[in-house]
């Protein structure tokens, strides 16, 4: 099947296998983290603060990570990232098992995770075109998304059961082990002679960084989308990440299992979208497709804030997951195909920095506002503002004509 053609390339198959295991355990970790914070503090603002501690270090180091990815071995950077994350979450697991875990430990762990992600994300984004021909990039990116979303379906369900029956320590410990498995797979890729690594550059790091910014500014479809992503994430990601657990408890009158179910249904919608996109040989009309999916995502955020039942929330999360994955996969394929490979690490890091720069503000604002006024208005207002901002991007011909 066309969807699975990227797995015939051994380097990608190893990377994909390791990341699938790691992502499954990450889903357990996120459920355990969200529910531990809610039970210990009862506050959406506390969850928002943990997300801020994770996001700010990532943003501060993203540009450094992008330059490193284009100068050094991408798989070695990924290997070091996996090993460090295993150590960090392993310590969290030990503290939780010993009843010594307190909120500031999670602040520190989240900050370390953020730093590591600043190197891992652009490395993983850029290494895929290094190990695959361009014709199978849609398959590879779809498979990456499917593994992430399958983990999102199975992981929250397992995570809800583990947390309810065995506590958070076991979920944290399984996540630490998963990073060891991922590191072993990355190590296997590093030994393959077919792997292409970035060519040595005689230019300084600042010169290379400026080159990355020039690449972005020379393409209106790039800088416009990055700018809109930065502003819209302020209004969309904050409610979905910081206020959703509180929405489940206060508006839907439910517990951790329903929270896990909603995450699983979002992942199910994402898989449907990924399977569809993975079977496409070449994506067409990428500008309208990207922004159309983006608008649907914002509308579903509004729907979550309306007085709907658990069934209605489930449908909204399913559609939201499909829209978010369509947006992400089309955008990833566009970057990998249209940005020169030797600059892809830097452009990917600039894209992430611009897109996520306001996330800490969004997390904090959503958490504080949800605590004060309730979570429902946060979703309605945030989704409506996000939709208006996204629609502005379609006014530029460079976005509408992107094919």
Describe the structure.
With 403 residues, this protein is an all-alpha fold. It has a single domain, classed as MFS general substrate transporter like domains (Growth Hormone, Chain: A), CATH 1.20.1250.20. It has 15 helices and no strands. The chain has helices spanning 10-41, 44-71, 74-97, 103-131, 137-166, 168-190, 205-217, 220-250, 256-278, 286-305, 310-338, 344-356, 359-373, 375-393, 397-400. Helix 4 (103-131) packs antiparallel against helix 12 and helix 8 crosses helix 12 (344-356). It is globular and about 50 Å long. The protein starts with 9 loop residues before the first helix and ends with a helix.
Keywords:
403 residues; mainly alpha; Growth Hormone, Chain: A; 0% strand
DSSP summary: helix tally? 15
Give average pLDDT, whole number: 82
Order of helices and strands: HHHHHHHHHHHHHHH
So what's the overall shape?
A: globular
* Distance N to C terminus: 25 Å
Q: What is the level 1 CATH name?
A: Mainly Alpha
């Amino acid at each position: 099947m066309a969807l699975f053609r990227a797995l015939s390339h051994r380097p990608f198959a190893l990377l994909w296998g390791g990341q699938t295991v790691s992502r499954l355990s990450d889903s357990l970790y996120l459920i355990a983290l969200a529910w531990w914070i809610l039970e210990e503090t009862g506050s959406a603002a506390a969850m928002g603060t943990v997300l801020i501690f994770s996001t700010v270090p990532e943003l501060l180091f993203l540009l450094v990570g992008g330059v490193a990815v284009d100068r050094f071995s991408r798989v070695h950077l990924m290997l070091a990232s996996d090993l460090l994350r295993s150590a960090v979450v392993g310590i969290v697991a030990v503290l939780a098992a010993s009843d010594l875990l307190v909120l500031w430990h999670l602040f520190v762990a989240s900050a370390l995770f953020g730093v590591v992600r600043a190197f891992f994300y652009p490395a993983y984004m850029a290494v895929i075109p290094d190990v695959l021909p361009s014709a199978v990039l849609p398959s590879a990116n779809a498979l990456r998304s499917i593994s992430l979303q399958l983990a999102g379906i199975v992981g929250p369900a397992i995570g809800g059961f583990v947390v309810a029956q065995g506590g958070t320590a076991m979920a944290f410990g399984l996540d630490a082990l998963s990073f060891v498995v991922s590191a072993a797979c990355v190590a296997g890729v590093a030994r393959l002679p077919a792997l292409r690594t970035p060519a040595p550059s005689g230019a300084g790091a600042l010169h290379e960084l400026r080159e990355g910014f020039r690449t972005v500014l020379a393409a209106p479809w790039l800088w416009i989308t990055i700018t809109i992503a930065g502003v819209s994430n302020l209004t969309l990601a904050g409610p979905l990440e910081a206020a959703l657990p509180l929405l489940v408890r206060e508006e839907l009158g439910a517990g951790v299992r329903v929270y896990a179910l909603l995450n699983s249904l979002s992942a199910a919608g994402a898989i449907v979208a990924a399977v569809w996109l993975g079977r496409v040989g070449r994506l067409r009309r990428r500008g309208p497709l990207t922004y159309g999916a983006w608008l649907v995502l914002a509308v579903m955020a509004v729907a979550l804030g309306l007085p709907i039942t658990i069934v209605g929330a489930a449908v909204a999360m399913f559609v939201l997951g499909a829209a978010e994955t369509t947006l992400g996969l089309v955008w990833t394929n566009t970057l990998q195909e249209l940005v020169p490979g030797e600059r892809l690490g830097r452009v990917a890091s600039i894209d992430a920095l611009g897109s996520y720069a306001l996330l800490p503000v969004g997390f904090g604002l959503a958490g504080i506002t949800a605590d004060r006024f309730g979570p429902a208005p946060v979703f309605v207002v945030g989704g409506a503002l996000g939709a208006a901002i996204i629609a502005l991007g379609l006014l530029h011909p460079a976005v509408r004509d992107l094919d």
